[in-house]
Amino acid sequence: MALIDLANPTRFLALTARTLPWLAAATALAFAFGLYLAWFTAPDDYQQGATVKIMFVHVPNAWLAMGVWTVMSIASIGTLVWRHPLADVAAKAAAPLGAAFTFLALFTGSLWGRPMWGTYWVWDARLTSVLVLFLMYLGIIALWRTVEDPSRAGRAAAILTLVGAINLPIIKFSVDWWNTLHQPASVIRVGGPAIHPAILMPLLVMALAFALLFVTLHLAAMRNEILRRRVRAIGLMQAHAAQGA
Amino acid sequence: MDLGPHASFIIASYAMAALVVVCLIAWVLTDYDAQRRQLSDLEARGPTRRSAGVSKP
Question: What is the pLDDT of residue A161?
Fold first, then answer.
């Protein structure tokens, strides 16, 4: 199947039906392995102690918080430039998932911060820019719910998403541009990761598990959105037919 | 397993993550059921395509 065939929602539904069970199984396996590594093989950190286990949840969700917005931004370009029939479906389906991952990044970061920094929250550039990202996700979800026509909502949400993408480099480089309590990057950095492999490995496996979870749920949510639009189209058509009769 | 003096923070983090993941899965599954049900109701009620029922000359 060529990539262009996926532009057809019916073919996309068929592909989703075939791949979802495999993706769900891969996600479950990745989580099982990641949690085993995180809880039974990873050593305590010499400074953080066992609290380092929070990082195995916090960091993947923080990466996904930005990654999902990147996916939405690419989909928004597809909506505005190519009017790809699945682009705004993909963007809409991703927003609640991104909001959930961002919430988890903030929540687990806050729980890590209390014992390590002595506070649940500080208004430093990294934490504040991620909070802004969370609010932007909520704004996009609200926009989708406000405008009834999906194609009009899609274009408005696409513009807002691309404007909001300005926040992504701000989040990434906030720890370099400003003096923040949040530490600088320790995995994705020039010179390679600054983390011992015994802790890096569980972190990467958990990141893979959460990424697979996102792909699985995103495809399932896209399938639901395609069905929702069919329901809407058929409902409108039958209502017109009933009026004309 | 000794989680040290901050065990409650660690457990709360994983518990919230599990809760959110379960909620996301439940949302996707219930939404799928709802859309399938509505679609089959509409299909049972009448034509599902504009061309349906229009005879060609």
Answer: 96
What was the ipTM of the complex prediction? 0.91
Whole-angstrom distance, CA of residue A225 vs CA of residue A82: 20
Q: At what angle do helices A150-164 and A55-77 cross, to 10 degrees?
A: 120
Question: Which regions in chain B score pLDDT beneath 70?
Answer: 47-57
Picking from B39, B31, B40, the residue whose alpha carbon sits closest to that of residue A221 is B31
- Judge whether A139 and A160 are in contact, CB under 8 Å: yes
- d(C-alpha A35, C-alpha A53), whole Å: 10
Whether residue A224 lies within 8 A of chain B, CB to CB, comes out as yes
For B13, the closest of A111, A230, A238 (CB atoms) is A111
Distance, CA of A126 to CA of A59 (rounded, Å): 13
Q: Is A115 within 8 Å of B45 when comparing Cβ atoms?
A: no
Distance between CA A24 and CA A217 in Å, rounded?
A: 9
State the DSSP code for A5: G
